[in-house]
Amino acid sequence: MRDFVYDRADSADAAQTAAKEGARAIAGGTNLLDLMKHEVETPDRLIDVNRTGLDQIEEADGGLRIGALVRNADLAAEERVRRDWPLLSRAILAGASPQIRNRATTAGNLMQRTRCAYFYDLGSACNKRSPGSGCDALNGVNRMHAILGTSEHCIATYPGDMAVALVALDAEVEIAGANGKRTVPIAEFHRLPGDRPDRDNVLEDGEIILGVTLPKPTGGAQVYRKVRDRRSYAFALVSAAVDVTVEDGKITRAALTLGSVAAKPWRSNEADKVLVGSEPSRKAFENAADRLLQGAQGHGENDYKIGLARRTLVAALAEATGIDIAGDAA
Amino acid sequence: MAQHQITLTINGTERSLALDDPRVTLLDALRQHLDMTGTKKGCDHGQCGACTVMANGRRINSCLSLAVMHDGDTITTVEGLGEPENLSPLQAAFLHHDGFQCGYCTPGQLVSATAMIEEIKQNWPSVVSGDLEKVSLSDDEIRERMSGNLCRCAAYANIVDAIREAAKAEGVA
Q: Would I find Iron among this entry's keywords (chain B) (predicted)?
């Protein structure tokens, strides 16, 4: 690990001031310290934000305001979250291990970096780690990699679970910077790689995350479905978060989001709209999945993800709506 | 280099530590600076769980935390669970059920399982909980909740037996 200067912030203002001066925020540290040990991350200065008091969960306009420092374990176990946003609890609990969730924070989870092996390996070309060096994943071991929104410069995925649920739930990210506060819809927080894969998200230099807000619950049925190599403590190959409302036999509202298929949780208004007005059925679910996966492209080893994502989303929708899809024509 | 003066309350005893390097992890502070070698270093990347300790009652990977971030915290290590002549019920259950082979992962397993039983008492759900709002103990729950602790000898079956027995003895069902 490269040496760094360590300072501790006792308020959000102090953290933001340090960030403006170039310090990197550290909260749980479960991802950042791992990357620093590999020397993938080499910050000169760390600002410890654990004591800034941003660890509260509060009611806000029928929804919740979740402080940046709320630990994953606390958020998943929060009574209102379990009752009204079970999708969020389940997505968080599907990720990492209990030890990690006890330490990892809401903002830190949004900031976690890709698990692309070439990003971790200093001997490999990686435009995300070292802009301009190339991308060894394009023609390499890429079975975990993205099928949507990629560029010739990067095919890495955002690996997390929590953000996939937050996108389906229309959460917003509260950000503080030198010019005051701003709010960004979570669906616009993470970036597609384009020609700047080193920039994972829209956070500007000197900005910090203050918290995440959840709008009031939709009352829909929520399901998080995660497919992975091991049953526990493994990153998703594909995941699906759905929040669907059915009234009088017809779908009146749908939010569909796929995880680990792109550099950001993948949702489209068009795919959501495909379902609205339909009766829940395998065919309707497949139509929506096909719309959401429009343009999907594999890179060799990850070709299977297109079909897997389709089946995972259909299964999640079937579970949410109580439809038995076994035996129906594909 | 800057000096970092920190205080930790470890297994009930206050310990002060002067670190001249902020890179020291909580794990290395325990093992290298305080000579408390019960906590083990396995992968040093948060994957194996051998370094599990409790910080303010919560189980964490001590390898993925800087010691300076824990100034003022209360730490429980395997040395704080019991003594050779006065084992904790969980330690006794591990012995009874032969919940290990080489023993290297055992300190982490013990601290992790001790905290896990408390988490179930607090009704914390897991991803395999059918009902998120009412948690109960099952072997599936134990396996899921212990997935952050690897045992390369694969003593898992006996580890689950030991944890189930200790949890039930504490009234967790």
A: yes
Chains A and B form CB pairs within 8 A to the count of 101
- Kindly state whether residues B135 and B155 are assigned to the same domain: yes
Question: Residue B107's domain spans which residues?
Answer: 89-169
pLDDT by residue for chain A (330 residues), tens only, comes to 999 999 999 999 999 999 999 999 999 999 999 999 999 999 999 999 999 999 999 999 999 999 999 999 999 999 999 999 999 999 999 999 999 999 999 999 999 999 999 999 999 999 999 999 999 999 999 999 999 999 999 999 999 999 999 999 999 999 999 889 999 999 999 999 999 999 999 999 999 999 999 999 999 999 999 999 999 999 999 999 999 999 999 999 999 999 999 999 999 999 999 999 999 999 999 999 999 999 999 999 999 999 999 999 999 999 999 999 876 555
Q: Are B76 and B110 within one domain?
A: no
Q: Which of A34, A37, A99 sits opposite B148 (nearest CB)?
A: A99
Q: Could you tell me the two tokens for A230?
A: 């091991």
Residues B44 and B22 in one domain: yes
- CB contact under 8 Å between B112 and A77, yes or no, is no
Are the C-beta atoms of residues A136 and A125 closer than 8 Å to each other? yes
Residue B72 belongs to domain with CATH number: 3.10.20.30
Residues in CB range of A303: below 8 A, 6 or more apart? none
CATH code for the domain in which residue A19 is found: 3.30.43.10
Are the beta carbons of A253 and A242 closer than 8 angstroms? no
In this structure, how many other beta carbons lie within 10 angstroms of the beta carbon of residue A20? 14
Q: A71 in a domain, yes or no?
A: no
Name the residue type at position A181.
K
| CA nearest to B53 within chain A | A99
At B129, list the tokens: 């909980």
Establish if A228 belongs to a structural domain.
yes
Q: For the sheet with B58-61, list strands across it.
A: B13-19, B4-10, B74-76, B52-55, B58-61
Count the domains in chain B. Answer: 2
A103 contact B CB<8A: yes
Residue that terminates a domain, selected from B51, B80, B109: B80
Cα–Cα distance, A15 to A12 (Å, whole number): 5
Is the CB of A46 inside 8 Å of chain B's CB atoms? yes
Number of domains into which chain A is organized: 2
Helix boundaries (H) for B24-105: 26-28, 89-97
Instruction: Give the CA angle between residues A137, A138, A142 to the nearest 5°.
Output: 55
Q: Does B2 touch chain A (CB under 8 A)?
A: yes
In a domain, A160, yes or no: no
Q: Which of these three, B60, B80, B100, is where a domain ends? A: B80
Flag whether residue B69 sits within 8 Å of chain A, measured between CB atoms. Answer: yes
User: Both B9 and B47 in a single domain?
Assistant: yes
Q: List the domain range (segments joined by +) for residue A18.
A: 5-50
